[in-house]
Amino acid sequence: MILEFTAAPGFDFITRFSKQINAVVRDNFLEIPKEMGEGYVRKVGFGNDFKLTIHRYTLKEDLIIKRNPTATSNTIRTIFFYSNKEDLDVRYNHEVNIPFSQKNDSSILLSTNDLRTEIRFPAGSNIQYVVVGITADRLRSVLSIEKPNGTLETITAENASFLFFESLDPEMQLLLKNIVSVDMNNSLNNFYVQIKVQELMYLLFSKLSIRESTPFKSINSNDAEKLLVIRNELLSDLSTPPVLSELAAIASMSETKLKQLFKQTFGDTIYNYYQKARMEEAAFLLKQAKQSVSEVGYELGFSNLSHFSRVFEKQYGITPKKFSYTS
Description:
- This protein is an alpha+beta fold.
- Helices cover about 40% and strands about 20% of the residues.
């Protein structure tokens, strides 16, 4: 099933979705028809300039959500909080599917609505995500920061065009779980959800606020597409360190532009991002796959296991051997 839309001012996702699946929306609540799967979509409003859509469902067929870019710039910022045991694919324009979440990882995407995106949810996956739509004015009011860093200035600016990624840590995952599970029949739970969403946003913007302030470069759909390709390239083989000149050729960018846009979007340098993903994979293999330290080290391209242990300990504060024994 393909759901295509343009998130222009006044657009209402739940109404568009209900027409697509021929279902009825009652009190901002849409129940998925039994023949399609199970679950629901719920809209919660905190005013015309701050809205939330809660998605919790399992579908019998793949769902592809295509967001077309708006014809004119607007001040709406979209924040996509996603947590799932399954892999999620996101792509820009007509690129092949690009993993958005690795293993059991969860992610956050924050962007303006002038970028074209396509997100795929596999059939049978337990989909849980929250989409926040908020205007730049309301966001500035909510944040109330006197001296924001360059990243926050960009996000709250009137005519910005940007894409930012962040990880969804365990504390945020718990908040997201609470939000998607709330019983809205309680009259006070709209207030509860607003508090929890702002808490989720607080944790997100706390991360964004400590990003290094560097000159911001506007991004377009083609840039966003290429950055996702590069991220996929980094994660596809964690045993091989990235070569900047090769990545720049893949992205059809200069090395300088690629380095700037990658760090701006993902919050870290290409090599540091790769190394962190490498150690996260190591932690997964040690704990979940129950592989030995030597097996993991060699699989991830370390010829020297002492070097592997030092890099792992630098990220996790514990050696890989001790980590494998922790509960």
